[in-house]
């Protein structure tokens, strides 16, 4: 990798050296107030990136009140990841060209390149045609034009606030150095670790993975396989128990009137796509290993898929009917919906065990061939 952005390179290397060199001094002067400053600024900077840059601007998964936009546009300067416009331009290319040369932080170029090396090599100028919708937003444009001044002002302000109740060195270390180090690496983990270490639940053909531990460190962004498969969903962790504070923040903002039109995938639509994808993925495997068992598995795969899609079609039709049904009819439709959902649940479970059996048996066979 050839370093071309020397300014960024020296800044990143320089502050890493300072974080390590000054750590003993910080440990000696540590106080709980310092931890509060660290966690608060880490939270504001980190969530501004995940809820603001990522899910609002880059993917447009919901609409936000101008006040919400201002908060994330200013809060994100604590994360120092360039303007929302530049960030979204890179990120949209990442999704459109993932795992290829056109992906700005492609994991195919190596772990460290995807993690941080890409920042130091040449970065192309923002092509407005890919972020025209954002460029039309005067607040996003303002932040882009005055990014450096806003970043300096916000970071100085945070450290000065820290100085009100902390020793100036501690305020600088916890409220700037260490906080920046933590936000940078947690964001970078999504481009590196979340494309390497975890499980592929939704899009088995991509390098992106789901990893609950990463989700914990990154405000919910660790469910990255789901995210690449369904980037238009405002959630990354779709189960209620998935740790996704960004999703909870957006949902809470919608309750307060600060966000609206939250986009999410209906579970049944999601399952239909997955069944289709799984079948397409597994059929070639069965073709490659044409034994007696494979013939039977192939028939079962077709039969299950057909059965599942039929029930799913019926459920979607009923859910649509429910919206215009009269009060009396609604009761009957409700019962029917419940019955179908029960049936679909057991078909889904059977589908999962059938597909994981086929994947294990025939991938293993392939490995031994
Ligand atoms: Zn994304
Ligand atoms: Zn990714």
Biggest β-sheet: count, sense, barrel? 2 strands, antiparallel
Total DSSP helices: 15
What is the quaternary state of this protein?
single chain
Helix and strand composition category: mainly alpha
| Ligand identities | zinc ion
Uncertain stretches: none
Beta strands, count: 2
Overall mean pLDDT stands at: 89
Share of helix among residues? 55-70%
How many structural domains are formed by the residues? 2
Instruction: Provide the β-strand percentage band.
Output: under 5%
**Which geometry do the CA atoms define?**
globular
Would you spell out the secondary-structure blueprint of this structure?
Blueprint: H1 6-28, H2 32-58, E1 63-64, H3 66-75, H4 84-96, H5 111-120, H6 132-135, H7 138-145, H8 147-163, H9 168-191, H10 212-217, H11 224-229, H12 245-255, E2 259-260, H13 267-288, H14 292-324, H15 327-368
Antiparallel strand pairs: 1-2
Helix pairs in contact: 1-9, 2-3, 2-4, 2-9, 8-9, 13-14, 13-15, 14-15
Bound molecules: zinc ion (ZN) (2 copies).
């Amino acid at each position: 990798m050839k370093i071309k952005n020397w300014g960024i390179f020296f800044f990143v290397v320089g502050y890493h050296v300072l974080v390590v060199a000054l750590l003993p001094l910080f440990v000696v002067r540590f106080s709980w107030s310092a931890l509060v400053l660290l966690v608060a600024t880490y939270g504001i900077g980190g969530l501004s990136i995940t809820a603001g840059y990522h899910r609002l601007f880059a993917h447009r998964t919901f609409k936000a009140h101008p006040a919400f936009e201002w908060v994330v546009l200013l809060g994100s300067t604590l994360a120092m990841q360039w303007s929302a416009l530049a960030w979204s331009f890179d990120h949209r290319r990442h999704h459109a060209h993932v795992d290829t040369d056109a992906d700005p932080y492609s994991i195919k170029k190596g772990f460290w390149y995807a993690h941080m090396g890409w920042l130091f090599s040449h970065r192309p100028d923002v092509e407005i045609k890919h972020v025209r919708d954002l460029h039309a937003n005067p607040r996003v444009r303002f932040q882009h034009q005055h990014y450096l001044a806003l970043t300096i002002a916000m970071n100085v302000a945070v450290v000065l606030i820290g100085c009100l109740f902390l020793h100036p060195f501690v305020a600088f270390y916890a409220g700037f150095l260490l906080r920046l180090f933590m936000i940078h690496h947690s964001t970078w983990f999504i481009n590196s670790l979340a494309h390497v270490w975890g499980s592929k639940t939704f899009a088995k053909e991509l390098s992106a993975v789901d990893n609950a531990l990463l989700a914990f460190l990154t405000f919910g962004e660790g469910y990255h396989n789901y995210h690449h498969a369904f980037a238009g969903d405002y959630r990354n962790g779709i189960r209620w128990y998935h740790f996704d504070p960004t999703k909870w923040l957006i949902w809470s903002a919608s309750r307060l009137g600060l966000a609206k039109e939250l986009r999410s995938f209906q579970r049944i639509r999601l399952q239909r796509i997955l069944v289709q994808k799984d079948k397409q993925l597994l059929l070639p495997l069965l073709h490659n290993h044409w034994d007696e068992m494979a013939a039977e598995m192939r028939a079962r795969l077709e039969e299950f898929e057909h059965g599942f899609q039929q029930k799913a079609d019926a459920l979607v039709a009923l859910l649509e009917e429910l919206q215009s049904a009269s009060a009396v009819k609604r009761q009957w439709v409700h019962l029917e919906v419940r019955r179908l959902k029960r049936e679909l649940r057991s078909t889904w479970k059977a589908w999962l065990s059938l597909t994981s059996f086929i994947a294990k048996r025939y991938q293993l066979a392939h490995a031994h061939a």
